[in-house]
Amino acid sequence: MHLSVIRLPHEAQKIDHIMEKFASRYCECDPTIFANVDAAYVFAYFTIMLHADVHNDTIKNKITKEKSLENNADVKNREGLDPVFMSNL
């Protein structure tokens, strides 16, 4: 929902700064999902990459649900994120 109301800049450094602030604020408001700010940051960045993968027609080998779950298995202190949470994404 966050990215449906704002458009990210094209500069990687600015995107990084926005994602850091987003992750920090997210963990401040809901400390139960992610173990720490770094985990929230990695997951938020992954979400952007997943969105690009799904909606960019030039990407021929789309990521599968299984591969995305595997890629994020150790985001939360090596415990992984809740598979239901991930599947809903």
Automatic annotation (TrEMBL):
A single GO molecular-function term is:
guanyl-nucleotide exchange factor activity
One matching Pfam family is Sec7
Question: What GO terms describe the biological role, i.e. biological process, of this protein?
Answer: regulation of ARF protein signal transduction
Q: Which residues form the SEC7 domain?
A: 3-89
Note the superkingdom of the native organism. Answer: Eukaryota
Task: Extract the PANTHER family matched here.
Answer: GUANYL-NUCLEOTIDE EXCHANGE FACTOR (PTHR10663), LD29171P (PTHR10663:SF375)
Identification of the protein by name: Brefeldin A-inhibited guanine nucleotide-exchange protein 2
Q: Which organism is it from?
A: Gracilariopsis chorda
